[in-house]
Amino acid sequence: MSQIDLSGMWTLRLDSSVLGKVSVPCSIPGDCHSALLAANLIPDPYYGQNELEVQFLNQEDFILERNIELSPEQLQQGSPYLYFESIDTVTEVLVNGKPVTQTNNMFHAHVIDLGCTLQSGTNTIRIHFHAAEKAAAQRAQQLPYPIPHSVYPVQSLHRNQIRKVQCHSGWDWGPCLMVSGLYGACYIDFASPGRIDNLSIRTIPAADNTWDIPVTLRYTIPGPGTTQGSETTGASGPKTASFSITMNLRLKDGEGKTVLKQTTEHRLHGPGNHQLEAILSIKNPKLWWPSGYGEQHLYTLEAAVWSSEKSGTESMTGQGDTVQETVQKTASPGTAIQQRATKRIGFRDLKVITEDDEIGRSMTFQVNGKAIWAKGANWIPLDSLPSRQTTDRYRNLLHSMVQANMNMVRVWGGGQYERDVFYDLCDELGILVWQDMMFSCSTYPADPEFLETVRREIRFQVLRLKEHPSIALWCGNNENVGALTWYPETRANRDRYIIDYDRLNEGIVGKTIRELDPDRTWWPSSPSAGPNDFSDNWHSDGRGDMHYWSVWHEGKPFEAYYDVTPRFCSEFGYQSFPSEETVASYCPEDQRNLTSPVMEHHQKNPRGNSIIIENFSRYFRFPEGFANMLYLSQVQQALAIQTAVEYWRSRRPICMGALYWQLNDCWPVASWSSIEYSGKWKLLHYAARRFFAPIALVSFVKDQSLQVHLINDTDRSISGTVTLAFINFAGKTVQENTLPIHKAGEGSHKVWELDLKRLPFPVNSAFFRGLLHIDEGPSASCVRPPQEPDKSLETVCFLVPPKQCNLEPAHIRSRLSVVKNYQGEAELLLQLNTDRPAFFVSVDIPGMKGHWEDNLFTLLPGTTRAIRFMSEASGTEEGGSLPSMEYVQAHLRIQHLRESYH
User: Fold this and answer.
1) Above 50 in pLDDT, residue 515?
2) Residue 647, SS3 per DSSP
3) What is the Cα–Cα distance from 290 to 367, expressed in whole angstroms?
4) Which of 226, 311, 447, 775 has the most neighbouring CB atoms within 10 Å?
């Protein structure tokens, strides 16, 4: 069949009270805001306070239109249908002036049978986009009682009434841009005699290292009763045709070699939705593992379907009845293949272990019998303008996760079910996916219309995604259990809203997921103590997953992380400002002050700037100047998250996972992210590379006691020597001893503990440094890249808040050179040394795309720290590219703690 791709250039039209009559090109897949921006009709909403200047678009209706030419021969190929993967959101679709469907949910595809709508020659597809903000308000007014939701500084109200990306309406880190558009695949195709609607595959471990592979192919045949605009198909009338369909299955390994094949013949009686089923079996497949635990072996299952002429008619009753006969058969030589579908799969036995114990109930992800300590972050949409969500940006962010020793990402429920490239990369990189359904921080309607569109949404997304080995868990929503207590309406009539919650979350979302994907864990909400449990998992840490926000939102000190040991912490976080480079991208120079209108506009959390600045005085001496404010905020953020993760890792196996909030930004802003909107790593991301390392030496002060722990997530036993030293701020060692480490296996091992009262010197006159020398070097992913394994692991710890310590001036000397990496590409090498200890050393060269192999470290006298800059293009076809040495030397910026206030 000849599929007609509808991606490319469409025409966007609107009649605006602000812009007047507009007709501009719009690239599809893409959004209407981006088209207006490209035509210079609106200002950049990310710059200054321009977000406010484009709010009128929330009330505007749009039209997207394009023409296609069809020949008589094309129209004879079969029954035509129109496919849109995602229409955002409230629309009416017309073909040649005839309405063919209406939409109100961007989270499921629309397959529209066109009947006789198409014609030879020019055909016009027109989509009327109705303002989602208006549609949401209208729907809210029609309901018999209010459905409350969280509200943010710049906000489109009643977002919970419409099935579109919830954070499009604004959040406490994102702008309010109620975009509309077409995303993903869009095309016209022809069913002859039918079309493949879905290929469903299960991988089920059996005895003796054998895996069963049940395969179900959904094949839809339009019938005489199909009408234009129908999004369902079925037979009508007393007589229906019988079709002979052949299905060929091939399973190929990662090298493209066919390891299994099977051909089955199916006789389908009547138009409608048919299930073509088969089962394969494979012995000793190569297993798929999360990053850090093994390789990510992937297989591809190909399904090819072809048909002979219809073999007669048969009397049928009902609508869309399906009768299937299956026989094993060898494919006929020369038979023309009509349609194909492929999916990648991986063989892994993944369970979420929840077992009652003396503390409460565990929560551990187990893969192939191995308990996984989940390390990662929460993911929000890549960009508030969908047109900018590019494959390269997905790749850079997910690679950055693996480079920081992460093995899990949580797709947060206020964003979007991510694009195929996201899940494909997670499969390839070994990143487990905690997948929220797209409901967040709200109550939601439970009327029949809303429940039905959600049912279609969940069905579409689960069938689209369930073959990905990376997806570890389906979660019903983000914080909707908490929302039952947040609002006056829910507190006044809690039973009403609990019933609505249950109808939606259990009656539709959970039920649909369990029916379609019985092999994967369904988790009702995040946070949650488990099914049918409405506990406060913001403060209760004994069971299920926890969102621990007491440090940020309640203003508790970082040491409050020591008061809880979550079984699994799926949210916790601390904000920082972005780098000077990112601030310059949205803030005029005369506004670069933390309390300026622009800087405050790019801080969406109402108390955000105040919390950051107030906490400076808790731990640090107050910084001087704007640049040092930005730097110290990132140091503070890294220290906060490090405090939590290192302690919780030391509490293994009680705690078995930590996903901080958040990995990325959807626009340039002050936020909880560890990677800025541009892709630049914040200092937190460098710290994460160390505190998430599979083998890590950690130290912290708890209850006036210094503790040192060795964390080992690997199968190998660690032997070596740890040096425990106290060093004064002139760089002189004032106390030191060594301890042997002997065969420390997987788990957390307390190496040493010391009551600080026993020290013979004031605790504010020195710092602690632990150095573990391993007899045989750890896996390269501990700290350094594979080409440079390191046998030493370091931990540095202040004994009191740094503000209480009289740090001595440190003069850092640097030397830049260009070297070749193991691929023969040019890389920048920076060598640093100092005359006094320098803490939280930060290195930056604005304008360079990539990251340093290490950053945010302690630099000691008598040592040289050599770090390479890893170009974003390194290892690609483009290869690494460096600016001139003159540029690098002129723009190199080295900061450290004492310099921030002197």
Assistant:
1) yes
2) helix
3) 8
4) 226
**Mean pLDDT throughout 179-186?**
98
Calculate the CA dihedral of residues 25, 29, 35, 38 and round it to 10 degrees. -100
Rg of the chain (C-alpha set): 29
Task: Tally Cβ neighbours within 10 Å of residue 70.
Answer: 16
Domains of the chain, CATH where assigned: 4-131+178-189 (2.60.120.260), 204-345 (2.60.40.10), 352-692 (3.20.20.80), 693-806 (2.60.40.10), 808-902 (2.60.40.10)
Q: Give the pLDDT mean for 447-458.
A: 98
E strands, 335-453, are 339-345, 350-353, 364-367, 370-372, 374-379, 408-411, 432-436
CA 111 to CA 222: how far, in whole Å? 12
Q: What does the block give as tokens for 365?
A: 């992800």
Say which DSSP state 257 is in: -
φ/ψ of residue 314, rounded to 5: -150, 140
Could you tell me how many residues make up the chain?
A: 902
The two structure tokens encoding residue 538: 């913001």
φ/ψ region of 743 (left if φ > 0, alpha if ψ in -120 to 50, else beta) reads left
d(CA 15, CA 308): 52
Q: What is the mean pLDDT of the chain?
A: 92
List phi, psi (to 5°) of 203.
-125, 110
Residue 489 one-letter amino acid: E
Beta-carbon-side half-sphere exposure of residue 756 (alpha carbons within 13 Å): 21
Predicted structure pTM score: 0.94
∠ at Cα 299 (295, 301), nearest 5°? 165
Which whole number is the average pLDDT over 851-858?
Answer: 97
DSSP 198-218: EEEE--EE-STTEEEEEEEEE
Q: Collapsing DSSP states into helix, strand and coil, what is residue 658?
A: strand
DSSP, residue by residue, 615-658: HHHHHSPPP-HHHHHHHHHHHHHHHHHHHHHHHHHHTTTT--EE
Cβ contact 349:372 at 8 Å: no
721 touches 680 (CB < 8 A): no
Residue whose entry in the numeric block shows the structure tokens 């000793």: 284
Contact 633, 579 (CB under 8 A): no
Task: Name the token pair of 526.
Answer: 């995040």
